[in-house]
Amino acid sequence: MPPTPKNPGAEMPTAHAEMEALRDAGRTLRTHDLSGCVLYTTSLPCRMCETAAYWDNIERVYTGSDVTDRGKPGYGC
User: Fold this and answer.
1) Among 18, 20, 50, 59, the one annotated catalytic
2) Contacts of 53 (CB under 8 A, 6+ apart)
3) Is 50 a catalytic residue?
4) Residues 10-61 pLDDT 10s
5) Could you give the CA distance from residue 40 to residue 37 in angstroms, rounded to a whole number?
6) Which of 13, 31, 63, 75 is most buried when burial is the number of CB atoms within 10 A of its CB?
């Protein structure tokens, strides 16, 4: 899917919803330190997104799914 004004990150491999939310928050707050912020997501974040939330100092991540909803554990996202 090519990038469009509505979907500018269509070809970016890191364009997961959590990553986009962290980038948007950083841009809006004009800082990479998101201490005191929380992240809401519909499912468990992948390792990349969880690590990004950690490095951005996200205080807490709320998910709409249970750990058993993830299915069989595997490598990667």
Assistant:
1) 18
2) 18, 22, 39, 45, 61
3) no
4) 577 778 899 999 999 999 999 999 999 999 988 888 899 999 999 999 999 9
5) 10
6) 63
